[in-house]
Amino acid sequence: MDELAATMTGFARTLRAAGVAADHERTQSLLRALDHLDVTDPDEVYWAGRLTLCAGPDDLPRYDRCFAAYFGGTRAALSRTATTSVTRHLAERQGDGESGDDDGTPAPATASRIEVLRHRDVARLTEAERAEVHRMMALLRGGRARRRSRRFESAHRGVLDQRRTIRDALRKGEVARLRHRRHTTRPRTVVMFVDVSGSMAPYAETLLRFAHALVRNEPRATRVYSVGTRLTPVTAELRHRDPGTALNEVSKVIPDWSGGTRLGEELKEYLARFSARGAIVLIASDGWERGDPELLGAQLARLARQAYRVIWVNPHKGYADYQPLTGGMRAALPYLDDLVAGHSLAAFEQLSERLAHA
Predict the structure, then answer these.
(1) Cα separation of 252 and 246, whole Å?
(2) Strand ranges (DSSP E) for the chain?
(3) CA 150, 220, 273 angle in degrees (round to 5)?
């Protein structure tokens, strides 16, 4: 059984590299399904994987190619009827009976339904449910921890403002009142890196919408970059007030959607050009690093010396049985202040609170 689990986990990893949303939960569903099937029958393995690992019709061609390449077999093209049947079955699994009435109309967003949606994995929502979660995410109004700046302001108490006190005395001929000053405060800068590689495809849009909420709340103290095979700044595009418009603009400037992840190289590029001194750094990724994990660890060590806090947001952290076993996560862990979940609206609300009290 351990050999079977290792084989199917490797297959799921191949699918993620190809852009299929074969996340940890879907892989576990496949292994549970195979417990009840004949694993020596290629057809049963094929259909078990297709029904559990694919998230929608766009994944089906990729799945067929990966299955043939990984297991060394070929399959005839499916009929239109079979494809429609599988697609419908996947939609029913994703909706879990909550997608709406029989006529396809989305169900009204009652309080109890919204509470359920807050805790559900966004990768397993229907389009209507995901749109509702994104609408609620646009309403996030989390605060931002503040830091002392170099500027001063007048105050009733604090450090003696000698310059203003002497200036008043020269104007009035005597020291009539002591003037004081204190440091002003400003929001702590947040630098966010959003992984847009194939394995993060089910979560990338939601993460970018969370980034949009951060930029909208503190436009001067937020910087956002997409990471995949290259580092792309997207802060300017996220400044649009409307989330849909902002996401459309972001999609135009990101050249490496659903590719691989070379986070170590991109952090090295960022640190060569910019600084994260005193900032809170958010890295939203599942840790599937295609580059050298040692390079990633070295760059995170540099980043941790500059930043106020380094927080890694991993969608799979929301599951009780998650373990950070990928090379990227093992290299990153020694330099992280926090490893938090990023798979649901509730997780993003908690992250927003963390940023307000960091």
Answers:
(1) 10
(2) 146-155, 159-160, 180-187, 190-195, 222-227, 231-233, 280-284, 309-314, 338-341
(3) 85
Closest alpha carbon to 60 in 13, 25, 19 = 19
- The answer to whether residues 145 and 356 touch, using CB atoms and an 8 Å cutoff, is yes
Q: Residue 112 pLDDT > 80, yes or no?
A: no
Q: What is the pLDDT of residue 74?
A: 42
Helix axes 80-95, 59-71, angle to 10 degrees: 110
Cα dihedral angle (258, 264, 269, 272), rounded to 10 degrees?
160
Confidence of residue 111 (pLDDT cuts 50, 70, 90): low
| 291 conformational bin, left if phi > 0, alpha if psi -120 to 50, beta if neither | beta
**Of 306 and 8, the one with more pLDDT:** 306
What is the rounded distance in angstroms from the CA atom of residue 246 to the CA atom of residue 256?
A: 18
- Start-to-end CA span in the chain (Å): 44
**What superfamily in CATH does domain 188-356 come from?**
von Willebrand factor, type A domain (3.40.50.410)
Token reading at 226: 């997409």
Domain range list for the chain: 2-95, 146-186, 188-356
Share of the chain above pLDDT 70, in %: 88
Q: What pLDDT does residue 179 have?
A: 87
Q: What is the pLDDT of residue 300?
A: 97
